[in-house]
Amino acid sequence: MSLARNIIQGDIRAIARAMTWIENEHEAKEQLIDEIFPDCGRATVWGITGPPGAGKSTLTDQLITRERRQGRKVGIIAVDPSSPFSGGAILGDRLRMQQHATDDGVFIRSMASRGHLGGVAGSTGDAVKVLDAAGFDTIIVETIGVGQTEIEVMGMADIVLLVLVPGLGDEIQALKAGVMEIGDLFVINKADRDDAGKIKAEVEYVLGLKYAENMAAKNPVLMVSALTGQGIDDLHHSLYSYLNLIRSSGTLEQRRRDRLAGELRTIAAAKIEALVHYHLDFEDRLDSWVEMLYSRKESPYGLMNGRIESLIKELTDK
Amino acid sequence: MSLARNIIQGDIRAIARAMTWIENEHEAKEQLIDEIFPDCGRATVWGITGPPGAGKSTLTDQLITRERRQGRKVGIIAVDPSSPFSGGAILGDRLRMQQHATDDGVFIRSMASRGHLGGVAGSTGDAVKVLDAAGFDTIIVETIGVGQTEIEVMGMADIVLLVLVPGLGDEIQALKAGVMEIGDLFVINKADRDDAGKIKAEVEYVLGLKYAENMAAKNPVLMVSALTGQGIDDLHHSLYSYLNLIRSSGTLEQRRRDRLAGELRTIAAAKIEALVHYHLDFEDRLDSWVEMLYSRKESPYGLMNGRIESLIKELTDK
Q1: Is A37 on the interface with B (CB under 8 A)?
Q2: What domains are there in chain A, each with its CATH number?
């Protein structure tokens, strides 16, 4: 029986093998994704992001428990887009989720970046499709930090939780630049700390300034303690309220369409690069081109523009 | 007089304008880079990277002072590839370098990522060319953290200093995966701390395991205190010894050739993408493609592969 068929029947070993294919860019990966694609589109995808140390994994752990209580199967993709320095932390965070390790209704997988075109966001999108086709009801995509790549990864989610903690200090100001836009719900973790109210006020201030008109949720800033579980039930409830809101407004469908468009862009870019490299004899000619640059006989943009124009002329003149 | 001519004459306002052109992908940027390219290739490019809080900016500051004492003009490009969360820290770090702000022989510029194709490494490469053509003897490229993008940015340097501090703990293990490879010299900052010897031993152990055969420098691990200046003269001396070593061995020339090859790859990818998007009427057809995916009538890889094959056939049949 085919790998695709096994995935669709929810076979855990097939799912794990597919994840490895995605990470390693296996030559049959594209066909596999195409085969399972008709069975995708049923899962809800949650993105959880925030700075290192915000307690994202503990929060994820708590949310998994809530989902399991309501009988939903949960897949978790933990994405570490970049920093080799956080290797130790990831391992520790993952271990915290091991209470679900023996639960057949929970699948946890870490994915690292390999620097391919399409990158980690593309791989995450394919991994989400595998879990979706395999019948997981909720797929949680969790990132390690918050950077450009993490923002791209969050583009794979239907709803994004931005997790913050007291003590970020002035850095809340930096949030204004790009990160606040991707959050649907803002979770202040470690809310039992004295300075938790301050960060809540700051987040609400930033939200109020920029999103007063189109703020979909009445109460998008939630105080929790992931460690003790305080506020998690409320958060879980708000999350579903928000999902219902964006489902009925059409925002959810639009997000999913935008995501498909983004995927097409990524695929096209990768295909096109491979293709024209082939037609330009890129690798064979590269040494002589470098020699022309190194000796300053040609300039980089001029050289490449010239070669590509010639290629097109050649292709169209045939 | 042209912008390129002003840059080559070292005009600071022209340099600053060129940097803005690079950041904003100004339409005349490519022509500008091509015009100054014949005047490039004289500067030595240092890369300084390491985890946040390692003291990279303070170290850079100290090295600038040494370079200025020896009469060299120094350009600094501070690259923040991603994290909006470190916004506050960057500002603080930059301010520390302000003692050089009134020195005409020092030019400091921060560059943020804009997510273009070629990305921050491509922009950094172009910024290096501007400072090189403008007559800066030493160009220091400093990154904020250490991730995949920072590793790419370090590909623009002739020599890379990896800055570490005591207290990284188990995370030194994570260094094995990718980051150690990019370092030429390993600088242990805050060497006056009790646990500094431990990290030095760990780095040397990792180096010894992986690089015993081709370790170019006799003493690649240096202990400094960027704050007090302790060990900086030795580091500065080692840096020049290492540069002489790789210059006479041919490694430096090979690195510069590899860098030019990488730039050609990046330019080719960007050009080709723009071109085929045009020929595919990508933007006009995108909505109908998304509709086919959303209704599961087509699959993403199959759809895109089919369209690109048709395009090539179309172009070659004409």
Answers
A1: yes
A2: 41-250 (3.40.50.300), 280-317 (no CATH)
Helix, strand, or coil (residue A217)? coil
A4 touches chain B (CB under 8 A): no
Lowest mean pLDDT among A26-40, B4-18, B130-144, B175-189: B175-189
Q: Name the β-bridge partners of A285.
A: none
For the entire predicted model, the pTM comes to 0.66
What is the C-alpha separation between A14 and B69, in angstroms, rounded? 64
Q: How far is A114 from chain B (nearest CA, A)?
A: 9
CB contact under 8 A, B301 and A34: yes
Structure tokens, A155: 């583009």
**DSSP state letter for A305:** H
Order of strands, edge to edge, in the sheet holding A185-188?
Answer: A106-112, A74-80, A138-143, A44-49, A159-164, A185-188, A221-223
Scanning every residue of chain B, which has its alpha carbon at the shortest distance from the alpha carbon of A126? B300
CA angle A9, A10, A13 (to 5 degrees): 115
Of A131, A176, A135, give the one whose Cα is nearest residue A156. Answer: A131
Chain-centroid distance, C-alpha B310: 39
User: Which ipTM value was assigned to this complex?
Assistant: 0.76
* CA-CA-CA-CA dihedral for A187, A192, A193, A199, to nearest 10: 30
Beta strands in B174-230 (DSSP E): 185-188, 221-223
* DSSP at B51: S
**A34 vs B contacts (CB less than 8 Å):** 299-302
> A52 exposed, middle or buried (CB, 10 Å; 0-12, 13-18, 19+)?
middle
∠ CA(A246), CA(A221), CA(A76), 5° rounding? Answer: 65
**Interface with A, mutate which of B116, B181, B304, B308 (most A CBs under 10 A):** B304
**CA A31 vs CA A42, A148, A235, B222, B302: distances in Å:** 20, 29, 39, 51, 8
Partners of residue A261 in chain B, C-beta under 8 Å:
286, 289-290
Q: Do A86 and B305 touch (CB under 8 A)?
A: no
| Tokens read off for B189 | 């900052």
pLDDT < 70 positions in chain A? 1, 81-98, 112-118, 145-148, 168-179, 208-219, 276, 312, 314-318
Q: Which among B88, B171, B265 has the least Cβ separation from residue A170? A: B88
